[in-house]
Write a structure and sequence with these properties.
240 residues, alpha/beta, Undecaprenyl pyrophosphate synthetase, 8 helices, globular, binds 3-methylbut-3-enyl trihydrogen diphosphate, binds magnesium ion
């Protein structure tokens, strides 16, 4: 089924370091400018009426970056959570987070937990932050949780695993956007991306703003999603 607007868009926000390097600035300046893109894109997504937006903000592998960079990213995350609180609350945005959140320092964890709790009843859009996230870990955690809950081995099917994944409260993933010209998934939503449309752009994340999001959504409209079927089997309106 193809609807005009994706129900759930996920973005691999890449290219902050290169954006800074091109200006001979420290990498962290790229991350700071990238935070401005987050603000702009979240606002645009809300205005366009996207039901769910997931942002890959920090991967499990990103912990291995130089400690100063990790520390600076944590500080930027904290600033974001504190500064954007009114925007999130006033616009009916529900904040959620996926990943091994227990690894985050309390300077991030505390404002994160607070905003997740306070925004839990908001209904207009879900903004999900992937933090300390790895798609492989998410699948492992889901299988372990299902087994821990007593699900018998022969009931470990696709529906059950989906139920135990941290994205189970979000609509199906329709579109993944990756900025900066890299064409890979980098351990993002590995299970959920099975039939998502992929959109790659050379634009670096700090330069990616609402007009770029609109372009990605426009490209999505032209895709024919077949889910393994033939074109002829699809309802007429879903054909490109
Ligand atoms: C994305 O930008 C932000 C994070 C991964 C946290 P990068 O920091 O990966 O930027 P490049 O890829 O080095 O340009
Ligand atoms: C992916 O970007 C992770 C985030 C955007 C948070 P990376 O820059 O870490 O990915 P690779 O190393 O280029 O695959
Ligand atoms: Mg990168």
């Amino acid at each position: 089924m193809q609807s005009e607007l994706p129900r759930h868009v996920a973005i691999i926000m890449d290219g902050n370091g290169r954006w800074a390097r091109r200006r001979q600035l420290p990498r962290i300046d790229g991350h700071r400018e990238g935070a401005q893109s987050v603000r702009d894109v979240v606002r645009a997504a809300r205005q366009l009426g996207l039901p769910a937006l997931t942002l890959y903000a920090f991967s499990s592998q990103n912990w291995q970056r130089p400690p100063e960079e990790v520390q600076a990213l944590m500080q930027l995350l904290r600033d974001y959570l504190i500064e954007e609180r009114p925007e999130i609350m006033d616009n009916g945005i529900r904040l959620s987070a996926i990943g091994r959140l227990e690894r985050l320092p309390s300077l991030v964890r505390d404002p994160l937990d607070e905003l997740i709790a306070d925004s839990a009843k908001n209904r207009d859009m879900t903004l999900c932050l992937a933090l300390s996230y790895s798609g492989r870990e998410a699948i492992i955690d889901a299988v372990r949780a299902a087994l821990g809950a007593g699900v018998p081995e022969d009931r470990l099917d696709e529906n059950t695993i989906s139920l135990y994944l941290p994205t189970n409260d979000l609509p199906p993933l329709d579109l993944i956007i990756r900025t900066s010209g890299e064409q890979r998934i980098s351990n993002f939503l590995l299970w959920e991306c099975a039939y998502a449309e992929l959109y790659f752009t050379d634009t670096l994340w700090p330069d990616f703003r609402r007009a770029d999001l609109a372009r990605a959504l426009e490209a999505y409209k032209g895709r024919e999603r077949r889910f393994g079927l033939t074109s002829e089997q699809l309802p007429v309106r879903s054909r490109a």
